Amino acid sequence: MDVEKIIVRMKNQPNAICPADAEKVLEAYGYTFDRQKGSHRIYVNKEYKETLSIPYKNPIKAFYVKEILKRINR
User: Fold this and answer.
1) Cα–Cα dist 54/65, whole Å
2) Domain carrying residue 69
3) What is the pLDDT of residues 51-67, one digit of tens each?
4) CA-CA distance, 73 to 55, in Å (whole number)?
5) Number of structural domains in the chain
């Protein structure tokens, strides 16, 4: 699925996002997968020097989806 379509779906249905879609959006906005600790994946954005921890279970909770949207809408 296209990244822009995923973002629209994230805004309209934040409770229905799978980890793979969230990963596509993060990578499109400069985040890279750094490591996995248990069930959480850690993504790093070197430009803004920040990290983001996302649980890798389906579906992702709305809190995490809103956090992703907040970080990509700079």
Assistant:
1) 9
2) 3-73
3) 999 999 999 999 999 99
4) 21
5) 1
